[in-house]
Amino acid sequence: MKLLIPILFVLVGLGGGVGVGMMLKPDPIADCKAMQAGELTLEAEAAAECEDILAAVDKEIEALKREMEGPTTFAELKRQFVVPLLQGERVQALVVASIALEMSDGTQDVVYEREPKLRDAFLEVLFVHAHSGGFDGEFTAPAAIEDLKRRLNEAALPIVGDGLRDVLLTEIVRQDY
């Protein structure tokens, strides 16, 4: 009996500590959003984990929006995008990409009407991505592709309007020289 009371106190204290710890556990999404807004600084490993968390949250939000918005149609841009990767003044590689846009049903005509402006915006995004090293190394890693698609979506939205659901990379290849 003398041993039972201290063991009981230890178990109650341990259970209470675990319960309080679970209640006070920081919200990783809130921390990641604070990091993204520049209000919080995290170590490199935690920052990379935050990027993955935010990308997953954004992807889930987009999927839910798509479900709620109804039927879609696809508008594939007719020509591929060719992006030279330079090293000094020499072309080191070429990246060739095909892009399609997922649009709300009945709004795909605006893509073809504004294709020159859309191609210009996409090329600008692709050139900036190339210049910042986005096509170096593992350029098809999920985080790199999500970043590129996010930028392409941001570039397309003001041009084609609210009918835009997503920008799709239908083909992407890198040819080294």
TrEMBL record:
Highest taxon, organism lineage: Bacteria
Cellular component terms (Gene Ontology): bacterial-type flagellum basal body; plasma membrane
Single GO BP term: chemotaxis
Subcellular location: Cell inner membrane; Cell membrane
Keyword annotations from UniProtKB, A to Z: Cell inner membrane, Cell membrane, Cell projection, Chemotaxis, Cilium, Flagellar rotation, Flagellum, Membrane, Transmembrane, Transmembrane helix
InterPro entries: FliL
Presence of keyword Cell inner membrane: yes
KW Cell inner membrane (keyword) present: yes
Bilayer topology: Single-pass membrane protein
Task of the protein: Controls the rotational direction of flagella during chemotaxis.
Family: Belongs to the FliL family.
Listed name of the protein: Flagellar protein FliL
Source species of the chain: Algicella marina
